[in-house]
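Hi U.,

Before I forget, here's the chain from the pilot set. I'm dumping it here mostly so it's searchable later in email.
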Amino acid sequence: MINVGIIGFGTVGTGTAKILLGNKDVISQRTGFDINLKKIADLDIKKSRGLKLPEGILTTNADDILNDPEINIVIELIGGIHPAKDFILKAIRNKKHVVTANKALIATEGNEILAEAEKHGVEIGFEASVAGGIPIIKIIKEGLVANRILAVYGIINGTSNYILTKMTDEGIEFSDALKDAQRLGYAEADPTYDIEGIDSAHKLAILASLAYDIPLSFNDVYKEGITRITSQDIGFAGELGYKIKLLAIAKATDNKVELRVHPTMVPKDYLISKVDGVFNAIYVQGDAVGDTLYYGRGAGDMPTGSAVVSDVVDIGKRITMQDSRCRIQDKKYHASSIKIKKMEEIEAMYYFRFTAFDKPGVLSNISGVLGSYNISITSVIQKGRRLGEAVPLIVLTHTAKEKDVIKAVAEIDRLSVVADKTLYIRVEGKEE
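Structure:
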């Protein structure tokens, strides 16, 4: 029998407990061993979770789990950095395996935690930290183990995806779509982590570490949110054959890996552009398998609880078999020669929205600056002509270097024919 304790009895903790108790027989039949939920620790044990629990299972003291010699696996589901990190380190030092859904903690403190787990010979499972019910960590670590991973990118924040979907479907502005997401419970009262790309960057750091055997590198991920995207941009993107999504992107070329989160224009005929609402999708390209796409619910009590229990089962198998093969963490990435590519070194196609005065010679002035930085134009849209007034001028480019784009935009924004700061969005897809 494998005894487990849950620290944190919120949404995910409740879902995990429901699965461990409600599907106990199914899990036992499939694995050949029993998983016993022995303790649940939370500061509030009076609140009803709509779940019938065995007598005496609840406690307000996490040490009742951390110091219990019979508990094999500690499940940390309180979130945040502290005291979650302290609980996890104490569990590790007490020779207990750990399962967590805490992407912020793994992305920022994971190198230390994994090293400590290695030192004490225990496992850390964090499948639930990325994309909820999609088993993407297992896919990369096991299903695609024979592949060199060429690219990983996807929609891994359901809140931002819901907002952009709402803006696309209804033609409303960002602020209104955000209010709707908050009303439905998809966005927090303070949505900063979601709408500024921080949550996606946490998850990308984890995926990239697994895909490219590099240390967890959250601070090296370029982060840009969706707050500047307007319904106008979404409309112009549609005319050009694209949809706007907040993508997390990791690409490996020439022994360097790009790590970036930002709004991205994706061709409408790409499967990932059809992923709407709160759903997640992750595209992985392997050198042997080619292109693969994984789709599902990226959050919620039961999908995330499913991922948590998956890790518990995997660790339980290794405990019962005394088998340390395919361990979730290892040290090999410390020897990796792959470096993180600086954002200014990346190359992409670009969408520009210039706010320019409607008068002769404006396009030639702007295109002249772009040309001086080796940025060539593929498409131009200009609508709502009002002679002498500022109007949007839309330009789509061929592949260009980020550092050249930054310099060109700075120069264009100083032109007398430009009335406001230029917005640019990177474009994914095959160049025409």
